[in-house]
Amino acid sequence: MKTEQMQLIKVIEFPKYKIEEKVEKERLDKLDVAYNMLKYLIEEGHDFHIVISADAVNELFETDKISSDDYGILTSNIDKAEKIRIKSDNAIFYQIEGDEF
């Protein structure tokens, strides 16, 4: 391969690397926002419940017992969490953007 072609390949791959870097930064920003929200709630004495997908439950707890139609709830209060009935028509969703603070 000629030197000019090698340089062209490096130029083409550079933006791909930058895009991946940007996506990772956005994910870390969202994590930071979620952490700070949870920290605030805990400091104020509130309970929290985090709903995660079946795939995430199976991966987190290294199991395959949760079917894909189910979900898991990470919670600070099991009694309140057991009363939760999640229906998309009645749920309120908050999209974390990563730049809230």
SSE layout:
Blueprint: H1 3-43, E1 49-53, H2 54-60, E2 71-75, H3 78-82
Structural notes for this entry:
By secondary structure, the chain is mainly α. It has 2 domains: 1-46; 47-95, no CATH class. 52% of the residues lie in helices and 10% in strands. The chain has 3 helices and 2 strands, in the order αβαβα. It has helices spanning 3-43, 54-60, 78-82; strands at residues 49-53, 71-75. It has a two-stranded antiparallel sheet with strand order 1-2. The longest helix is centred in the N-terminal third of the chain and has 41 residues, at 3-43. The protein starts with a helix and ends in a 19-residue tail after the last helix. The mean pLDDT is 82.
Concise summary:
This protein has 101 residues and is mainly alpha-helical.
Key traits:
101 residues; mainly alpha; 2 domains; two-stranded antiparallel sheet; 10% strand
Provide the residue-averaged pLDDT.
82
Largest sheet: 2 strands, antiparallel
Whole-number total of structural domains: 2
Q: Roughly what fraction of the amino acids lie in strands?
A: 5-15%
- Please give the alpha-carbon distance between the first and last residues: 49 Å
Structural class: mainly alpha
Count of extended strands? 2
The arrangement of helices and strands along the chain is HEHEH
Dominant shape = elongated
Helix content: 40-55%
- Major sheet strand order: 1-2
Q: Uncertain regions: pLDDT < 50 for 5+ in a row?
A: none
Query: Gyration radius, to the nearest Å?
Result: 21 Å
Counted by DSSP, the helix tally is 3
